[in-house]
Amino acid sequence: MQSTTRFRWDELVKREVKGNDDLSLGEIKQFGPGWVMIEKVNDKEMARFYLPKALAKGFDGKVVRFNLTEEQAEKDFMKPTPPKPDEYQIYWTKDTPPGLDISVPKV
Description:
The chain is mainly beta.
């Protein structure tokens, strides 16, 4: 049986996050139960996203990949405060890889 390398969320703070469209969503600033907070700063503004951990695809050694686009992140997950404790439960499905709440697999 092959062992899969995994990275704890606390090891990924300050890492870049990209979505399916390969556009940068920002940098991991903190994490909580079921979510990861990303901040994207440009010359004019700062955006804060609270992404569901269940949408994480993995970490390639440089970038944490999420299964969503920049448009989806802006529409569904840009908010000023963390989600309620059970708000992101809907993203956990039978197809969600186990252990995403604690760590992310290497891709």
